[in-house]
Inverse folding.
């Protein structure tokens, strides 16, 4: 057996309680101190470190054993009884640690961050060797959706190489297939956590569906057209530009486009749609025609139209509130033309035209503070 | 389909009966040959049909494995070898737990531009029926002589016309092994698809596109036996351009069964290397020469840390009701 693993197995076999394994925890944050130790132990127990099937089995057994001790240690730290070997933890506080072991990392899965159309997004932590890093793990609910998760991974891998896309799309830590307790293989994409973002959908809810001030939608539109220009340059179509996939950073007026599962290369037809947003898709999607930049432009315009509080029962002629400047209404309406051939196809051109339009309506650009209601 | 179980004893009994009575396993072929007309057995005709590999009470974790061979010219021996070694193939897959409930389909391909029976596809079967299916093949023995066969119809059929519970319910990709020593045509022709499979396509589909589509649900490997045609560099180069490491150059055509078993074992992570697989095969009584041939052929896949052998990350992630998948168009 591998000597390191063998040594750890000996320690485990001698340990009668969590304190025997984790020792005295001197620091103020006992949990953090224990967690560090736990991560170092987990590394030794990682199956993929070993090639011999016997070692793999031994590592797996050791891991299970370690998890038991780890749960007790966490519970006792929470109980403030850690250190007294005789006291048992109050059972209710023992958390069940959920972990995902990829080839190179071990993720500790915490709470659910969001439930998407086809996947659940979880808060996770992993150690990069130096410190514990926070990330988001998006796990497909259905094994069938592997292709969509792979489409997301490949689109984002391409965009990671494009400097201009930085801070406009999520960064992938790794893409893996996860076998859950029932043995189902579910694809997962792990993302670096970005802070201070809120989706346009959540903003609508927070404002109780009240229309946004056109001056706020103004900068959101600017970011939208530029972001689309950048991704179209890379030959990609996002394919699902809807309020829940457009995240806003209120602080620096940023926009991050998430959920790339529906993305395709320019010229390929869209394979699937986000069911809750069916009404926002242009007709060519349902005809399975090749996707062009006009597709994203249509959906982006639709999203901005919704943000402006327009009634969209008749898609090609939405009814905007009277507070929305006419020029802005006409601009968006032109992007909602049903035929993809007659719709604008160049997001860069739109970005420039939008800028001219804003200057005409609102004068010179000034930074406008956008306050997201607390708790959004 | 695929509701009965594989039994080694039943298979052995049938084989010895065949020996005693002097009958061939390829009953349909023998019948057609004696009549002088090449004909497609109704059960092998896939026009307007799909093929299903489903879970059942007896086989809760079905795993689809399709084996499609070239029946022309130099490759005529392959189905005979498959038939002979079918028992061994199933025994190792199940007994060594490479996969839990294998359901095997056999198919044959020829040249759609000149053969009378270019595409024959059986059913996914768990039991002795797969031996019956082998009996329904018409072994053409023609071949175009221009180093090309209609292999491109195979990925098209499996990508679009099969329902496989292993993938649809559990995310485990099915297996497709194609065996042949010639090249595919560059495009799936819409008129051939309509004539043989029954789909009406708006346009031809490139082999590259259909391959990409297939690989999302199937682990596809192409085996090139090193016959005189199979040794032609342009042929292997064409396949490698399409499938990369998924092309297996096999020195001995007799070793196809061993090669299939080992490949499944490697991809499933049931064996760590081709040598481990060889040990399992020897234990099951396989021939030393063919095992050696398979081991050599799989050197590329074996022991690699490449994406094709990457295993799923283990986890104690709770299972969720997989009811809601994406709204597909």
């Amino acid at each position: 057996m591998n000597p390191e693993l063998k040594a750890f197995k000996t320690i485990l076999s001698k340990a009668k309680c969590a304190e025997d394994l984790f020792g005295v925890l001197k620091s103020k944050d006992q949990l953090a101190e224990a967690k560090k130790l736990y991560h170092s132990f987990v590394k030794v127990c990682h199956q993929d470190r070993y090639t011999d099937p016997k070692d793999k089995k031994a590592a797996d057994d050791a891991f299970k054993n370690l998890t038991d001790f780890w749960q007790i240690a966490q519970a006792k730290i929470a109980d403030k009884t850690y250190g007294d070997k005789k006291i048992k933890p109050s059972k209710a506080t023992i958390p069940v640690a959920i972990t995902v072991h990829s080839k190179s990392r071990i993720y500790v899965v915490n709470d659910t961050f969001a439930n998407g159309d086809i996947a659940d997004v979880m808060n996770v932590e992993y150690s990069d060797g130096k410190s514990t890093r926070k990330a988001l793990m998006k796990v497909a609910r259905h094994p069938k959706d592997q292709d969509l998760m792979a489409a997301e991974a490949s689109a984002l891998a391409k965009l990671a190489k494009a400097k201009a896309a930085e801070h406009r799309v999520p960064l992938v830590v790794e893409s893996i297939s996860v076998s859950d307790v029932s043995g189902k293989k579910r694809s997962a994409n792990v993302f670096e956590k970005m802070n201070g973002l809120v989706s346009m959908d959540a903003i609508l809810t927070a404002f109780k569906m009240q229309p946004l001030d056109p001056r706020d939608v103004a900068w959101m539109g600017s970011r939208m057209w530029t972001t689309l220009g950048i991704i179209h340059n890379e030959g990609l179509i996002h394919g699902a530009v809807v309020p829940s996939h457009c995240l806003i950073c209120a602080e620096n007026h940023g926009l991050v486009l998430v959920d790339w599962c529906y993305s395709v290369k320019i010229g390929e037809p869209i394979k699937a749609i986000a069911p809750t947003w069916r009404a926002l898709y242009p007709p060519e999607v349902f005809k399975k025609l090749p996707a062009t930049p006009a597709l994203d432009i249509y959906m982006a315009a639709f999203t901005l139209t919704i943000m402006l509080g327009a009634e969209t029962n008749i898609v090609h002629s939405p009814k905007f509130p009277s507070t929305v400047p006419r020029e802005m209404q006409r601009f968006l309406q032109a992007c909602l033309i049903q035929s993809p051939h007659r719709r604008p196809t160049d997001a860069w051109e739109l970005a420039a035209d939008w800028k001219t339009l804003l200057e005409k309506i609102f004068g010179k650009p000034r930074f406008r503070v956008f306050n997201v209601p607390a708790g959004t | 389909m695929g509701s009965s179980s594989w039994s080694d004893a039943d298979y052995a009994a049938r084989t010895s009966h065949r020996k005693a009575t002097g009958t061939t396993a390829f009953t349909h072929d023998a019948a057609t040959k004696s009549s002088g007309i090449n004909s497609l057995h109704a059960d092998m005709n896939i026009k307007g049909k799909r093929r299903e590999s489903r879970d059942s009470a007896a086989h809760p974790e079905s795993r689809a494995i399709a084996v499609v061979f070239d029946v022309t010219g130099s490759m005529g021996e392959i189905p005979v070898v498959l038939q002979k070694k079918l028992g061994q193939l199933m025994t190792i897959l199940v007994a060594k737990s490479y996969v839990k409930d294998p359901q095997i389909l056999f198919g044959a391909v020829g040249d759609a531009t000149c053969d009378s029976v270019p595409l024959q596809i059986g059913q996914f079967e768990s039991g002795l029926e797969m031996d019956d299916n082998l009996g329904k093949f018409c072994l053409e023995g023609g071949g175009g002589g221009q180093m090309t066969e209609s292999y491109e119809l195979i990925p098209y059929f499996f990508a679009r016309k099969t329902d496989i519970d292993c993938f649809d319910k559990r995310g485990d990709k099915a297996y497709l092994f194609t065996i042949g020593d010639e090249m595919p045509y560059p495009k799936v022709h819409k008129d051939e698809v309509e004539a043989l499979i029954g789909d009406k396509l708006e346009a031809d589909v490139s082999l590259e596109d259909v391959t990409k589509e297939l690989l999302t649900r199937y682990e596809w490997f192409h085996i090139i036996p090193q016959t005189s045609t199979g040794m032609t560099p342009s042929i292997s180069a064409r396949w490698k351009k399409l499938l990369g490491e998924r092309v297996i150059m096999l020195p001995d055509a007799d070793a196809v069964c061993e090669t299939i078993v080992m490949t499944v074992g490697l991809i499933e992570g049931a064996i760590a290397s081709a040598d481990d697989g060889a040990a399992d095969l020897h234990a099951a009584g396989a021939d030393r020469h063919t095992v050696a041939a398979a081991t050599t052929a799989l050197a590329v896949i074996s022991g690699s840390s490449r994406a094709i052998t990457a295993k799923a990350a283990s986890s104690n992630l709770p299972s969720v009701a997989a009811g809601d998948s994406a709204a597909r168009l």
Summary: The first strand of chain B starts at residue 51 and ends at 53. The two ends of chain B are 28 Å apart (CA to CA). The mean pLDDT of chain B is 83.
